[in-house]
Automatic annotation (TrEMBL):
Keywords carried by this UniProt record: DNA-binding
GO molecular function, one term: DNA binding
Cited InterPro entries: AlkZ-like
Name the record gives this protein: Winged helix DNA-binding domain-containing protein
Domain of life: Bacteria
Pfam families assigned to the protein according to its UniProt record, in alphabetical order: AlkZ-like
UniProt keyword DNA-binding, yes or no: yes
């Protein structure tokens, strides 16, 4: 059958799922799996990290490395090993340079179709984007440029002036695989040509979509599992039919493991077999309090977040359902509140429990976690 999945290896509780996701996402060190050695490995493991808030993305990635240094994330951007672009859902993500090309090639077309009417409403058709592409290629031929510098070039070429036009053209061309955001200058991430910045063959044009879909499904569930088909649909913005094909292809390649939880089938990578065989080690590794970054994949990366975040509390993390995800306090695998930085130096922690008061010891543990939290490097 096209949507066949492996036979389940375990039946889990929702608490088990929440704790296993912390390990899969590398938010906590497991005695066997450990943590990625550097930001590039951390991003490669997650495949893509939502990053419209670049400082928060620094924290999210650094939190998943052994050294926990956000300066290393900046260095990877400046050196070209990491990039930021719009591969899916019309949303900025951090990806490795090795993955950005093929991910955009695979997922970009659906995002383009979804945005086409909005662009047409402001006069941006395919011909306009082709003109913008030619201007960008000329302006960036000798190296990176800021958004403002590129926007000025587009204005001089006859496009409507303003940051909205610059954003739309940059978004559209990046989603087409023409541009990416690369090195950082001060607080501005510079625009570069994808064909000059990404490694040769990054789009993997010689490989059929089915091969890339299998890799996408396998790597998503390995880094986010246990996760469901609807979770992957939501994450990629692909159709359910396409995602089921991707899952079937990954299963055929031996890269999926299935479990059940409350009657639902969830998927993970091969490591899940050993993890569920020793849940005591998982429970020990996930004991305690951690602070996640804004827009962290632990909450954002799923259609069904209830293992980590109770449905009735989601409005406290995503107020108004407007897509702005607050940083979350996680205790023993469950979201128990939100947090923020305060003070003129942004060095004071303010926590907002979902229920008053926090469980015993959580408030003190929050402060300890805050003191160990990576700080985004200052602009330079």
């Amino acid at each position: 059958m096209p949507d066949a999945v492996p036979a389940p290896v375990a039946d889990l509780t929702a608490e088990d799922v929440a704790r296993l996701r912390l390990v899969s996402q590398r938010l906590v060190p497991h005695p066997v799996l450990g943590l990625p050695p550097d930001p590039v490995a951390a991003v490669a493991h997650l495949l893509a990290v939502q990053a419209q808030d670049l400082p928060a993305a620094h924290v999210a990635v650094a939190s998943r490395t052994a050294a926990r240094g956000a300066a290393a994330v900046r260095a990877a951007l400046d050196g070209g090993a990491l990039v930021r672009t719009w591969p899916m859902r019309g949303t900025l993500h951090l990806l490795t340079a090795a993955d950005a090309g093929w991910m955009t090639r695979l997922l970009g077309p659906r995002a383009l179709r979804a945005a086409a009417k909005r662009w047409l409403d402001v006069g941006l058709d395919d011909a306009a984007f082709e003109r913008a592409r030619a201007v960008a290629r000329e302006r960036l031929a000798d190296g990176p440029a800021s958004r403002d510098e590129l926007g000025s070039a587009w204005t001089e070429a006859g496009f409507e002036p303003g940051t909205s036009t610059t954003y739309r053209l940059l978004n559209g061309l990046a989603t087409r695989g023409e541009l990416v955001l690369g090195p950082v200058r001060g607080g501005d991430q510079l625009v570069v040509r994808a064909d000059a910045w990404l490694p040769a063959g990054a789009r993997r044009e010689d490989e059929p979509d089915e091969v890339l879909l299998a890799e996408l499904a396998a790597r998503y569930v390995a880094s986010h599992g246990p996760a469901s088909v609807p979770d992957l649909v939501r994450w990629t913005f692909l159709t359910t039919g396409v995602v089921r094909r991707a899952v079937a292809a990954a299963h055929a390649a031996g890269r999926l493991v299935a479990v059940t939880c409350e009657g639902r089938t969830l998927l993970g990578g091969p490591d899940l077999v050993d993890l569920v065989a020793d849940l005591d080690a998982v429970r020990e590794a996930t004991r305690g309090v951690l602070l996640t970054a804004a827009f962290d994949e632990l909450v954002l990366g799923y259609a069904d977040r209830t293992a980590t975040l109770a449905a009735e509390l989601e409005v406290l993390v995503v107020p108004g359902g407007n897509g702005m995800f607050k940083p979350v306090v996680v205790a023993d695998g469950r979201a128990v509140g939100t947090w923020a930085r305060a003070g003129s130096k942004r060095d004071r922690l303010v926590v907002t429990p979902f229920a008053e008061p926090f469980p015993a010891g959580v408030a003190a543990a929050c402060q300890e976690a805050f003191s160990a939290l990576p700080l985004p490097p200052p602009g330079r």
